[in-house]
Amino acid sequence: MKKSLLFAILLAISLGFGTAWAGTPSATYYYVAPGLGQPYCYDMHLGFKYAAEKFGVEIIRQGSDDWNSQTACEALEQIVAKKPAGIITVAWDAAMNPGIKKAQAAGIPIILVEAESGDFGDCYIGLDNVDAGRETADQLIKYGGNSGKVLVIGNWGSTNIDQKFIGLKEVLAKTGWQIVGDQDGECEAEASLRAAKDLLNNHPEATAFVGLDSACGAAIGTAMEELGIAPGKLTVVVADREDAMLDYVRSGHIQASLTNRTAMMCYLAVQFLENITKFGFFDIPVTSNNQASKISVWPRFVFTGNVVISKENVDNFDHAKMSSYDTPLYH
Asked: Domain total for the chain?
């Protein structure tokens, strides 16, 4: 079912807006996740920096620079034992679920962003990833017509990417598009390039290429260049906004990239925690006694929605043109 962005907008307004930080942090929250050093996560860090400065709170990041969920799981267990004011995490796979459940059992507010794995955590803020897959299919149809042969790469096994693939296939099944090959690019530059070149070499009949994770765009563009495939010969629709991908939008190798409002997602997560610790969020009058009624006042999902990067707006997504929001409050 298509989710409206209106709820997220009204929520942001109703929760209030922070003011610039001056002085001692008023609270300490933790962001725990794998992938902290990956290019995709730049915008997550940007959002946390902005929120830390605006709300005057400390945000400590823990986990792993690579995609190693085990390291992040261990970090989450250790942080739960500290009983912090709140935790934000990502469940790219189900390995994070036991730590999330422990945080909930300990009464620690824990918010998932970007990816969720089942009914865990107090709230999920991010894309409706199945719907994001449907939107990807819509962009493919917009630029490539209602039929053709398409290749797909993604980071299979990652909950959000698997969900996008479901949505993509759901829409394409009702059209004349046929998926003639797919491979796992592991959300890593070299692996994605190998997968893209392999698919292109083995499927000369392909008329389009879809990439569902952040590393795919640059990989597909590079593969086309190295194999001598001219811009526009394939319809290419990808995901996210890594800097290495943007030049391929400018050159015409990529027609569109769908990206989350990533920084806003992280800002909203901090804003929720602020309203719990400072503004009586749990006492919102859903019932006369929320605790006795055994109900949660949390919204289960806050869907942020995609924006589309194209040749017309690509320059506005350059990270070099954006403020850095460097702050000692996020570390």
From this structure: 2
Spans of the chain, pLDDT less than 70 = 1-22
Return the pLDDT at 210. 98
- How many percent of the chain have pLDDT more than 70? 93
In sequence order, what are the residues at sequence separation of 6 or more whose Cβ sits closer than 8 angstroms to the Cβ of residue 155? 161, 184, 185, 186, 187, 212, 213, 215
Give the whole-angstrom CA distance, residue 109 versus residue 129: 23
Same domain, 100 and 24: yes
Asked whether the beta carbons of 21 and 52 are under 8 A apart, the reply is yes
What is the sign, positive or negative, of the torsion defined by CA atoms of 177, 135, 100, 24?
positive
Kindly report the backbone phi and psi dihedral angles of residue 111, in degrees, each rounded to the nearest multiple of 5, phi listed first: -115, 135
In this prediction the pTM is: 0.89
Q: Could you tell me the residue range of the domain that residue 210 belongs to?
A: 129-240
Claim to verify: residue 205 and residue 273 sit in the same structural domain: no
**Residue corresponding to tokens 């050093």:** 37
Pair 52, 153 in one domain? no
Q: Kindly state the tokens that stand for 22.
A: 């001056």
Residue 41 forms part of a structural domain: yes
Q: φ, ψ for residue 161 (rounded to 5)?
A: -75, -40
